[in-house]
């Protein structure tokens, strides 16, 4: 706004207009003297009376839907982070929005990135990284709650499943190095549990590992999502 005001002042001064008396008011400025500027003024005045252009339908879509359609992982993370305090609203919007992505499974994996490799110390009290991890967990939970595509089970490419399995194994390895799954931070255990619920349980996860994750993750808060897992639900009564 300041740049625009300065540009206007400079243009008026170059045309000999005294702006000192009007600097504190909002009265219409007298038209510039040169013909080019006057012509521009007339054009703007006329165009303001013309009917507004038709806005493309896509611009009316909610931000979450638009970002998922574009497969914009960074944009979706920023959007969720900026609205993380409105969790209930996000949990209504994001699952349906993810369905619009061309490859939902791949897109979700891109969204969570490699935050799981960061140790417990990176998430100390008041750390800005806490909200970043909450965003990743919300996206994983939303993926499980995504509406049924209507064509059977959601297809997950083998390359995506392999990448997710490598992530789960690396995540488990870090937690074991920090004392084990039974003493993991709730947000860590929940994230790993959601990851394997979304993409499959790696072969080196024992039944006791799953039990430890369920106990430490506060699973009662995400039970609705866990029950929709095609991988985890059949393994647990």
UniProtKB/TrEMBL annotation:
What are the UniProt keywords, alphabetically? Developmental protein, Differentiation, Flowering
> Which Pfam families does the protein's record reference?
Frigida (PF07899)
Quote the biased-composition stretches of kind Polar residues, using this chain's numbering.
Answer: 21-59
Please give the residue ranges the record annotates as the region Disordered.
Answer: 12-62
Question: Record's InterPro entries?
Answer: Frigida
Query: Which Gene Ontology BP terms does the record give?
Result: cell differentiation; flower development
Keyword Cytoplasm attributed = no
PANTHER family, from UniProt?
FRIGIDA-LIKE PROTEIN 3-RELATED, INACTIVE PROTEIN FRIGIDA
State the family it belongs to: Belongs to the Frigida family.
Query: Could you identify this protein by its name?
Result: FRIGIDA-like protein
Name the source organism: Capsella rubella
């Amino acid at each position: 706004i300041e740049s625009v005001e300065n540009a206007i002042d400079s243009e008026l001064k170059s045309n000999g207009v005294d702006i000192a008396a009007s600097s504190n008011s909002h009265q219409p400025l007298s038209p510039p003297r040169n013909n080019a500027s006057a012509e521009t003024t007339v054009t703007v005045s006329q165009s303001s009376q013309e009917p507004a252009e038709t806005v493309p339908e896509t611009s009316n879509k909610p931000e979450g839907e638009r970002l998922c359609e574009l497969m914009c992982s960074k944009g979706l993370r920023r959007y969720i982070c900026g609205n993380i305090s409105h969790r209930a609203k996000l949990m209504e919007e994001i699952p349906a929005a993810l369905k619009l992505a061309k490859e939902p499974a791949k897109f979700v994996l891109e969204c969570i990135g490699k935050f799981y490799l960061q140790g417990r110390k990176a998430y100390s009290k008041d750390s800005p990284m806490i909200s970043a991890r909450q965003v990743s967990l919300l996206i994983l939970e939303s993926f499980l709650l995504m509406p049924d595509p209507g064509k059977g089970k959601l297809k997950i490419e083998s390359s995506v499943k392999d990448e997710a399995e490598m992530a789960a194994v690396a995540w488990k390895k870090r937690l074991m190095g920090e004392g084990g799954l039974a003493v993991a931070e709730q947000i860590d255990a929940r994230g790993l549990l959601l990851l394997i619920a979304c993409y499959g349980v790696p072969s080196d996860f024992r039944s006791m590992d799953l039990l430890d994750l369920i106990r430490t993750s506060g699973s009662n808060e995400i039970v609705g999502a866990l029950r929709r897992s095609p991988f985890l639900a059949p393994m647990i009564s």
